[in-house]
Amino acid sequence: MIQSKSVSITQEEFEGFLTILKKNTGIIPRASHRDGIKSFIERRIAEKNTSVIGYRNEILSDEGLFTELVNESTVNETYFFREEKQFALLRDRFFPMWRTMFGSARIKIWSAACSYGEEAYSLALLAKACGLNVSVTASDINSIVLEHCKNGSFLGSSIRSVDGLAFQSLIDPYKKDDGRIEFDDDIKDCIRTKKINLSVIDSPSLFMFLPKNQNIIFLRNVFIYFNQELRARVLRTLAENCLADGGVLFVSMSEIAQLDSDIVPPCLEKVVDGNVFYFHKKGER
User: Residue 147's CB: how many other CB atoms inside 10 A?
Assistant: First the structure.
């Protein structure tokens, strides 16, 4: 068996790949991931028996190869009902309130960086369990994970033994004997997938495709990869163009401290409810 020849790229060449990544996605990989990303690029160049320039040109023209690089540059850990305290707040406060206010009218929810889809399905399951008519938009920059989300099939590893355990009973009816989770059409029909690149969220060409009048937006574990300028643009666009009056925006509980008050739009107010933080859009509750 012929083994691939090892490849070593220079720091300048590596920075060139990071520039491509940032320009096309806004992603700035965390320092702890950079060595792994560099090794991945070197391995793929060797496996493809190409040059640094050749591989660079390929990732710019081949969506699948570029998606590989995006996935390698971010942590795609996701599971059902992650950060369950946020879901508990929806269950105990917002969903009962909206059921009283809106009755059978449809509640709109956007999982704005859905990855493989566990978050979107968690939101749909909980909303339906609370008696709401719900429409969930699941978006991501990665068309491959969106296809996975659309299929509604997940491995047992998408369930954690601690975080999210309080809501596991909602998933139990969809478990198969081999441990997989297979959602039926009643749940899958609540979810529509859409490819959205958040780094160009405020571009005029994307405006008409953005989900509008959303009662809830989940945008979690994304801002850790964006600089302050892009964070501000994303927050402004979500608040002004996508979130309904009285709507709520959730980021990861670990990201709250990274969002300086000067980048939060005036129409959003930061709220703390117990030990859960979220942003509320001013207007009628």
Answer: 12
What is the distance between the alpha carbons of residues 280 and 260, in angstroms, rounded to a whole number? 16
Nearest Cα neighbor of 42 from 11, 64, 1 is 11
Helix, strand, or coil (residue 89): helix
Q: What is the DSSP letter of 147?
A: H
Alpha carbons 221 and 242: distance in angstroms, whole number:
19
User: Where exactly are the structural domains of the chain?
Assistant: 11-73, 84-281
Q: Which residues contact 248 (CB under 8 A, 6 or more apart)?
A: 94, 215, 216, 217, 278, 279, 280, 281
Q: Look up residue 128 and give its two tokens.
A: 């339906």
pTM tops 0.85: yes
Smallest CA-to-CA distance from 12 within 76, 77, 59, 56 is with 56
Radius of gyration in angstroms for the set of CA atoms belonging to the chain, rounded to a whole number: 20
**Gap between the Cα atoms of 64 and 143, Å rounded:** 9
What is the topology classification, in CATH, of domain 84-281? Rossmann fold (3.40.50)
Strand 106-111 versus strand 133-140 pairing type:
parallel
Distance CA 107, CA 41 (A): 43
Q: Where are the alpha helices (DSSP H) in the chain?
A: 11-25, 31-47, 52-61, 63-73, 84-89, 95-102, 118-129, 143-151, 185-188, 204-207, 228-237
Mean pLDDT by 10 residues, the chain (285 residues): 72 95 91 91 93 95 90 82 96 94 93 95 97 96 90 94 92 95 96 94 92 97 92 95 96 84 92 92 69
For the record, the structure tokens of 66 come out as: 């570029």
Name which of 54, 56, 46 is nearest 20 in CA terms.
Answer: 56
Q: 228 phi and psi, to 5 degrees?
A: -65, -35
